[in-house]
Request: fold
Amino acid sequence: MIETERNTIRHLITEATPKVGRFEAMILLAFVLGKPKEYLVAHDDEAVDEMSQIKFDLYLSMRIEGMPIPYLVGQQEFFGRYFAVNPSVLIPRPDTEVLIEQALIVATPKPKVLDLGTGSGCIGLTLAAECGAEVVATDFSAEALDVAKENAKRLNLNVEFREGSWWEPIASTEVFDLIVSNPPYIRPDDEHLRNLTNEPLQALTDGDDGLSAITEIVAHAKKHLKAGGWLLIEHGYDQGEAVDCLFRVGGLAGVRTVKDYGGNDRVTMGRRAD
Reply:
């Protein structure tokens, strides 16, 4: 009877909770068992087979060592959809949903969108799904583009992917209704970077002042925007004023900075007036 109890869902969750917390323990066990979390609650007295227990212990060990949950389970929810992720791409975060919300407010019907540094594709693919956008998505990382292409296939969305750094894959004559980007903006000396060791460094920091990638994007944005088109860029909580200045120097009008759900400056946007 004691041995049977030790094999149950309830026991495994109880044992794992002090190590990673109940919520994460349930996510990992649900993933191992191929069941929704609700199933674990309703069937907590159900026995777990030995192989599943071994897998669960392995995932627990990896999580304790710092591997993010989305990389362990291979996906992350973003704006109501699940996106495949692996260590080649940044894990989509709720703050980036602010960029989506603002883009949808200013988007024209079925806009032509450029997503610079697409990573998992979560921004460009979400816009394609939400407003029927015609999307061109770029990234300098072939591995990241493989993930984005997988997500496009999973979501049954038709997006054009191009490999290259920032403006390199874009023809000088191409123009868009919306240009969006979540570029690397964390300074290399920022203490927050220490907690993100499992994510791709090149997607987090520019290795400079945190503004070099943003500067590169803004410098060429106006000529690639249609009249009335918008540029929207995610940035650090303390970069709003600097990015606002870059937008204005870059000749964009109607510049404003939008706060994230935590009340921090997160997305700056501006349009081509002429």
Summary: The chain has twelve helices and nine strands. The radius of gyration is 21 Å. The mean pLDDT is 95.
